[in-house]
Write a structure and sequence with these properties.
The chain has 264 residues and is α/β, with parallel strands linked by helices. It is 40% helix and 16% strand.
Length: 264
């Protein structure tokens, strides 16, 4: 199916539509590859219209959209820096105009995650992580909130990490930001519950994706009770449930998906 180019944007940023559509749109950030791409495909299979957000990988985003359309779904690709206020406002506005009101947000986008021990740690290291795991979810939730309140239905799903539970040396900036992200979930769940909006966090263990190609998983596996490495599908299955109407009574939860790796 040929692309439909919408608006005065980069011609590489395209929108596809199929005969199957949904009145509900899910926005998945950082969805051109890795966990985000698999989550986007799963939500589309559940009947959501999916906005595939990316920052630099236009080709990857277009592949995800193409896969969704080939499977009978509806999706579009949208470039945006989800740590920037104006960019997020424009993103949600465009998605709403082109695909429909955003009633689910999956905050998956992330940036570099350097391992930095305390003697070398700077405030900027903290700010870099907070931008993705506190600022970005806040901006996305604020931008999507009007549509969710109008529909009395909304799903905010934040992608966290079990690094919060592992006390790994060198990961203090990352783990601190992820811990803060989990606290947002509890407070927002109280604030937004009366409007039919649920807020949850999925905390994966180590889920190898494209950037981990060739990585040795043997040491990690020794501490995983179920005896296998997790897959992106393990995460996407839970996100799909939390985004569904079936999960309307599940909110304020931080759910680890790591095969028992952080049992205490």
């Amino acid at each position: 199916m040929p692309p439909i180019v919408a608006g005065p944007r980069d011609v590489r940023e395209v929108r596809y539509r199929s005969a199957v559509s949904s009145s509900r749109t899910a926005l998945v950030t950082g969805a051109s590859r890795g966990l985000g791409a698999v989550i986007a495909r799963h939500l589309a299979a559940d009947g959501w219209t999916v906005a595939v957000n990316y920052h630099t990988d236009a080709d990857g985003a277009e592949r995800v959209v193409h896969d969704i359309v080939q499977a009978g779904g509806t999706a579009g690709s949208f470039r945006a820096d989800v740590t920037d206020e104006a960019s997020v406002e424009t993103l949600v506005s465009r998605v709403t105009h082109e695909l429909g009101p955003v009633l689910a947000v999956v905050a998956n986008a992330t940036g570099p995650q350097p391992v930095v021990a305390l003697p070398e740690l700077t405030w900027q290291h903290h700010l870099d992580q907070l931008a993705f795991f506190v600022k970005s979810p806040t901006l996305l939730a604020q931008a999507a909130l009007p549509s969710m309140r109008d529909e009395h239905f909304g799903r905010l799903v934040l992608i966290g990490s079990d690094m919060v539970d592992r006390a790994a040396p060198g990961w203090s900036a990352y783990a601190a930001a992820k811990a803060a992200e989990a606290e947002l979930v509890k407070i927002w769940a109280r604030e937004l519950g009366p409007y039919g909006i649920t807020v949850n966090l999925v905390a994966p263990g180590w889920i190898p994706v494209e950037r981990h190609a060739g990585a040795d998983t043997s040491d990690y596996l020794t501490d995983v009770p179920v005896g296998r490495i997790g897959t992106p599908e393990d995460i996407a299955d839970l996100v799909s449930y939390l985004a569904s109407e079936r999960a309307g009574f599940v909110t304020a939860q931080r759910i680890s998906v790591n095969g028992g790796h952080t049992i205490t």
